[in-house]
Amino acid sequence: MKISLAFDVHGTLVDASSVLEPLASYVGGEAASFFETWKYKQREYAFRRRMMEDDVDFSLCTRQALDYACLRHKVEIPEEGKLALFDFSKRLPAYPEAKVALERLKEMGFKLFAFTNGPLDEVKELLRHAELEDCFMSIYSVEGSRTFKPDPAVYESFLRSNHTGHRFTWFISGNSFDVIGAKNIGLKVVWVQRTLDSIMDPWGVSLDQIVKNLDELVAFFRDK
Amino acid sequence: MKISLAFDVHGTLVDASSVLEPLASYVGGEAASFFETWKYKQREYAFRRRMMEDDVDFSLCTRQALDYACLRHKVEIPEEGKLALFDFSKRLPAYPEAKVALERLKEMGFKLFAFTNGPLDEVKELLRHAELEDCFMSIYSVEGSRTFKPDPAVYESFLRSNHTGHRFTWFISGNSFDVIGAKNIGLKVVWVQRTLDSIMDPWGVSLDQIVKNLDELVAFFRDK
Prior knowledge:
The structure is a homodimer.
Chain A: E1 4-7, H1 20-27, H2 31-51, H3 58-72, H4 79-89, H5 98-107, E2 111-116, H6 120-129, E3 138-141, H7 152-161, E4 169-173, H8 176-184, E5 188-192, E6 209-211, H9 214-223
Parallel strand pairs in A: 1-2, 1-4, 2-3, 4-5, 5-6
Helix pairs in contact in A: 1-2, 2-3, 5-9
InterPro entries (chains A, B): 2-HAD, HAD-like_sf, HAD-SF_hydro_IA, HAD_2, HAD_sf, PGP-like_dom2, S-2-haloacid_dehalogenase
GO molecular function (chains A, B): hydrolase activity, acting on acid halide bonds, in C-halide compounds
Pfam families (chains A, B): HAD_2 (PF13419)
């Protein structure tokens, strides 16, 4: 059986932190800390909504987390500024090495998938804009499942939908919660730690591989 | 039927932020921001563990969130320092007005309960040390339920265990996630907003009452 590689999208294939540039025009020097609050709350809101059995899509969590960050950092961003930030987030650039690395992996015979917490149409558009769409056999979103990664049900449902077994699937993500979630159901995982400031949650989980970028991922699978 | 008042504990009756003082000896001027990271992650970890169907108690989330905060803020706290912080957290002081306010509410005929995400023995000891224990008919912990507030099942289970109905129960908390969780199952809620820096998640939830402290809570129930 061919090996499948399932890629998370934001922070793995496309650079979510590039929103710092337009953000700085509203938030100034505090942009990095504002962005951190926004991302923390976005995830917390997604996890809490799930826990409350309150069925919302990830975009609402993103919007309300931005509102929280404004309150927390005592910054006002006008409504058109918020819309501009969301629009920008739909056209995030690919990491510079992503396209060539994915093409290499495809040539090497791996089946590639994108697997995201974001809404399907948005993520398709994002990958199209980043010129990565054609690398994937399919793009899989949790949308409609009423839950999010790292719920084990979501990873299982990804495997079933794409006819790929546990033993033949590697999961690749730059996000700690997502790597731990995939490992939790027994997948092999690679963590893409792009900077030394990127932190793995200290839960004592042993990862199968850590790489700095997708070029290192290609090298890792070439040597296997 | 008598009205029941169910109180969250940390940040509602006892002052969790008093840990800032011992924390400053390890972390220095960054203590407030370190503490914020610690609290953010403590909750995120609890919500994520639940989402991953990974049954751990809240204390593990607290410990691993402290480890995360050390990594994030590039601070080393020796093992005995961490133990000292956990010990300190088991003997947090009551807010100055808490004891008298709870006694007034009891005299006014309300049935008082403590209702916490923390382990039962720890919270009992905490309330004993804070000299609040005798104010309550019972102290209820989620321990053993394999989940945490704001899971609706937890609030329902509290109501069942204490033979108190939705219509006759008010829930009082200083924590936004908890107030929203209680409102989500139809309880009347009071948010204790002790400082203007305390933020209600901007989810558009309408609260029944906001007070600055428990003296104002007494006044609110006296006027009802």
